[in-house]
Structure formats: structure tokens, C-alpha cells
Automatic annotation (TrEMBL):
Native source species: Dunaliella tertiolecta (Green alga)
Listed GO biological process terms: cholesterol catabolic process
Pfam family, one: p450
UniProt-recorded Gene Ontology molecular function terms: cholesterol 24-hydroxylase activity; heme binding; iron ion binding
Protein name (record): Cytochrome P450
UniProt-listed InterPro entries: CYP46A1, Cyt_P450, Cyt_P450_sf
PANTHER family per UniProt: CYP46A1 PROTEIN-RELATED, CYTOCHROME P450 FAMILY 46 SUBFAMILY A
């Protein structure tokens, strides 16, 4: 028995050495990749520092603004946070050009958001045109098909809906403050307004996130944010042991999210052929066809790209809402 125990020692030592080598490799890779980037605040913990979620837990803390202020004072006008990859925080407007330029300090192109969307929806890669081969049929068809959505004319036509949602949100803030005289948690309501804007402008779909305190779509997205920000989504044990309580909860969250996005897709599809003057994202997604076959792409591909069009544009729309909130 003693001999057998000792026989495992070389194997255990090899496993430990391999694990240490992997950790060191990840650390040196991240260090090399970020050497030309602006400074970054300390990670939430040492384990998350090895991933692309080093600062994600800070975003679900009630005193996030205090941390942001401290980091700005200490790190300067531009610093980098790792949430689903590098996110640049700019507190000095004069430094915006530095961030959006193509130089060493500019924002790198990464596919983390798209990869995580594929993971949430349990799709086989590649399903998203944004991660597909740029010389392939899918990339060219989707890029050309969605271009009219973002024309100057179409954006101008849609802007009254953006303004209406922003004004509705600000009016709600005023009523809530007058009723309680307590500070209003503006960020959570901005997320709701963002979802309503994307639904109305992009898909002619009513999420009604501003109308009800409990919104299933907002709650599902928040659950997935918590899961990803704590690296549960990347936990290899969930894949090895899918029957554990944590793995079942993770699968249920992904399933719930997929069902909600599928409801949006079914609503858009049920309208049939969109009219020619409808240049919304949903309408143009329905028009896209594979140039090689002349037929629509498989539904799972259309659903995946609908999902990323909602998720990706939530950040951009929130910028507009903040501008309206400041001007109102």
C-alpha cells in the first residue's frame, strides 16, 4: 500500500507542475498583451486576475461609483477594466482620441462578447457573422443586409423613439424622488430604457422594461451577468459534472435566456415579409439570404445574430440616454 501511494507521487508532482505552468503562461500572456495599455485597477481577487473578468464583480456592488472615483483619481484620465475583456474608462474628454485611435494605446479588437453569446445560446461556432470568415458568404451577406439599419436617414427617423424613452425615464426619476426623497438608482433604469429603445427601434418589439418593476428579460440578463462575472460560466467542472446543483442552475439560466430571445425572433418572423420602408434590424435580418443558395440562413444562425444585435447595442444606446438625462 505504501509503495502504491508513493507511486502516485511523480504523477501528482507532474500534475501540480503542469497546473503551475498553465497559470504562469496565462499570467505572462496577459502581461504581454496589456503592456502597451493604460493602467488598470487591482483585480477583485487573484483568481479572477487570471481571466478576462478581473473587475466584473465590482459592477454588481452598490458602491461601484466610489471605486470608480478612487481609480480615476489614482490612475488618471484613462484606465482599463477587465469585464468581458478590456473595457476602457475615460474620465478626461481630452483623452478620448487616445482611446479610439489605432495606436498602441487604442482599443484592441477582441471576440470575447461574441464568444460568450455563443456559449450562452449553446451554439456551435461559428454562428455569428461577426466571428465568421470575412471572405465568406455569411459575413458578407449579413454585413450588407444590415447596413441600411444604420444609415443616417434611418437613424434620424428612429431618433424620436430614443428621445421619447429617455424623457419617459427622466420623468419616472422625478416622480420616484418626489415620492420618497431618496436617491434614485439611475443605472438600473437606464438598462431598462436601453432595452425598450432597442426593442422599439430595432425590432418593433415591446419589452416594456420601463412599465413594470419586474421584467423577465432584464432579470434573465442580470442573472447571466452575475454568472459570467463570477466566472461560473467558465467553470470546467460544470462541463465535467453537469448534474451538480451549480451546473443545473447554469444550464437553466442559459435556457431561460435562449427562450426569451427566441420569443423576440418568433414575433419578428410571424409578421411575414416586411414592407420595403421598414429598415429595422429585425426586418433586414428576415431579408438576408445565403448568396450561394439564394435561401435564408438556418434559423439558429438568424437567432444567434439577432441576440448579439440586442446585446451589443445596449452599451451604445445607454450613452444616448445619459446624454438626454443630463440635458433634460
Amino acid at each position: 500500500m505504501v509503495c502504491m501511494d508513493r507511486g502516485w507521487l511523480p504523477l501528482a508532482a507532474t500534475a501540480l507542475a503542469g497546473s503551475a505552468a498553465c497559470v504562469c503562461a496565462v499570467y505572462h500572456f496577459k502581461k504581454k498583451a496589456s503592456k502597451n495599455r493604460p493602467p488598470s485597477p487591482p483585480p477583485y481577487n487573484w483568481l479572477l486576475s487570471l481571466s478576462n473578468y478581473a473587475h466584473a464583480p465590482f459592477f454588481i456592488m452598490p458602491d461601484m461609483h466610489r471605486y470608480a472615483t478612487e481609480w480615476a483619481n489614482k490612475l488618471g484620465g484613462v484606465y482599463v477594466m477587465y469585464i468581458q475583456g478590456p473595457f476602457y474608462v475615460v474620465t478626461d474628454a481630452m483623452l478620448v482620441y487616445q482611446v479610439i485611435s489605432r495606436g498602441d494605446l487604442g482599443m484592441p479588437k477582441h471576440q470575447e462578447l461574441y464568444r460568450m453569446t455563443d456559449w450562452i445560446l449553446s451554439h456551435r461556432s461559428p454562428q455569428l457573422f461577426s466571428t465568421a470568415d470575412e471572405s465568406g458568404d455569411m459575413f458578407r451577406a449579413f454585413r450588407k443586409g444590415l447596413a441600411p439599419c444604420f444609415s443616417t436617414e434611418n437613424l434620424k427617423k428612429s431618433f424620436p423613439k430614443v428621445r421619447a424613452c429617455a424623457e419617459k425615464m427622466v420623468s419616472m426619476w422625478e416622480k420616484m424622488y418626489l415620492a420618497t426623497e431618496e436617491p434614485v438608482l439611475t443605472d438600473s433604469w437606464m438598462n431598462r430604457a436601453t432595452l425598450d429603445i432597442i426593442g422599439q427601434v430595432g425590432f418593433n418589439y415591446e419589452f416594456k422594461a420601463l412599465d413594470f418593476e419586474h421584467n423577465t428579460f432584464i432579470e434573465a440578463m442580470h442573472e447571466n451577468l452575475i454568472e459570467l462575472s463570477t466566472s461560473m460560466g467558465e467553470n470546467p467542472f460544470d462541463r465535467l459534472f453537469p448534474f451538480t446543483s451549480q451546473a443545473r442552475q447554469s444550464a437553466a439560466r442559459r435556457r431561460r435566456t435562449k427562450e426569451l430571445f427566441n420569443a423576440v425572433y418568433e414575433a419578428v418572423k410571424s409578421r411575414g415579409e416586411p414592407p420595403a420602408d421598414d429598415q429595422s434590424i429585425g426586418a433586414n435580418l428576415m431579408r438576408i439570404k445565403n448568396p450561394s443558395t439564394g435561401q435564408p440562413f438556418p434559423e439558429e444562425i438568424v437567432l444567434a445574430n439577432l441576440t448579439i444585435m440586442v446585446s451589443e447595442h445596449m452599451d451604445g444606446m445607454e450613452i444616448l440616454e445619459r446624454a438626454w438625462a443630463c440635458c433634460s
